[in-house]
């Protein structure tokens, strides 16, 4: 439950064990310095981000109309606070006051609470690409950038201005940027492997991307579905990830020369890739999505890249 006031946004939870108070405040975000924007997440529709100086919240409405109403209410409160601030500055400075432009508020590292990457969106550390597990490599969040990282990569502390300059757990990259200290030898020289290509969750950065079920593959026994991407900067290769935000794929398939078979099992959502005894079977979440994947893979299998003006765009 959220409550929007003129000067603050309160995120509350119901209080069921105590008589009298109905809600307990979990998070407060001051309207001064607050920003709001819509999120494009197919898994969580009608979501929007409220970013304050101290905290950042991802909120989900029940409908698009409700989301728009909340965003408009937040923006109206922001505009009102900014207008009062400008009026106060003009009254204090007078007509001969300082004409220097105020320094713009920019979401810089350590100055504003970051948007945290959801735990379930990654299966490996976003810095060293080592897979997480419940015993020896657990998930942590960098308080500066919001990445999900392992304990080894987040074993650093740096003072963050948005948290009153208190030391916070940060990843190695943010620690180096915020403190200026030199990296330990050898950590920055790790070369990227052939599978260490970041999964592109943004449609504009890929020809086609979505969750697919990889049937009959050994990874399908542990993963109900995989995040599959054909990136625009590498349009002849299909990368298969465990999660959308992973920075290392568990499989890459060079598509050149593959034969694409649509609906081999009598299911219009299924398609196969075959070449020289090698076979991959995928299942899309809809017939329309299967058609876009088949179109993109046939194009890549023939060696064509979507650079010409006549090429069809199959991205969603």
TrEMBL record:
GO cellular component: cytoskeleton
Domain PH: 1-79, 205-302
Regions annotated as coiled coil: none
Domain (FYVE-type): residue spans on this chain: 119-179
A Gene Ontology molecular function term of the record: zinc ion binding
Record keywords, A-Z: Cytoplasm, Cytoskeleton, Guanine-nucleotide releasing factor, Metal-binding, Phosphoprotein, Repeat, Zinc, Zinc-finger
SUPFAM superfamilies: FYVE/PHD zinc finger (SSF57903), PH domain-like (SSF50729)
Top-level taxon of origin: Eukaryota
Main localization of the protein described in the UniProt heading: cytoplasm
The name this protein goes by in its record: FYVE, RhoGEF and PH domain containing 2
Source organism per UniProt: Mus musculus (Mouse)
Gene: Fgd2
């Amino acid at each position: 439950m959220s409550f929007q006031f003129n000067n603050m946004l309160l995120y509350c939870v119901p209080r069921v064990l105590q008589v009298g108070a109905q809600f307990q405040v979990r998070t407060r975000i001051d309207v001064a310095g607050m920003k709001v924007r819509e999120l494009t997440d197919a898994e969580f529709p009608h979501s929007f981000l409220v970013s304050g100086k101290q905290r950042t919240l991802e909120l989900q409405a029940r409908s698009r109309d409700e989301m728009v109403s909340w965003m408009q209410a937040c923006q109206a409160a922001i505009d009102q606070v900014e207008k009062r601030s400008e009026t106060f500055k003009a009254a204090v400075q007078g007509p001969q006051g300082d004409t220097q432009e105020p320094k713009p508020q920019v979401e810089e590292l350590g100055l504003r609470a970051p948007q945290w990457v959801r735990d379930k969106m990654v299966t490996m550390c976003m810095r060293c690409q080592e897979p997480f597990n419940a015993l020896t490599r657990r998930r942590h969040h960098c308080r500066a950038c919001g990445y999900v990282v392992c304990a080894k990569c987040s074993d650093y502390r740096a003072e963050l201005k948005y948290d009153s300059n208190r030391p916070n757990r940060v990843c190695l990259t943010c620690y180096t940027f915020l403190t200026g200290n030199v990296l330990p030898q050898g950590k920055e020289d790790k070369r990227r492997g052939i599978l260490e290509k970041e999964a592109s969750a943004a449609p504009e950065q890929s020809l086609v991307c979505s969750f697919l079920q990889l049937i009959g593959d050994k990874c399908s026994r542990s993963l109900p579905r995989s995040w599959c991407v054909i990136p625009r900067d590498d349009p002849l290769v299909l990368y298969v990830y465990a999660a959308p935000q992973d920075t290392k794929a568990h499989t890459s398939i060079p598509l050149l020369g593959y034969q694409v078979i649509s609906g081999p099992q009598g299911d219009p959502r299924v398609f196969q890739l075959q070449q020289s005894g090698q076979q991959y079977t995928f299942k899309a979440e809809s017939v329309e999505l299967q058609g876009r994947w088949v179109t993109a893979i046939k194009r890549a299998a023939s060696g064509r890249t979507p650079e010409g003006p006549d090429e069809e765009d199959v991205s969603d």
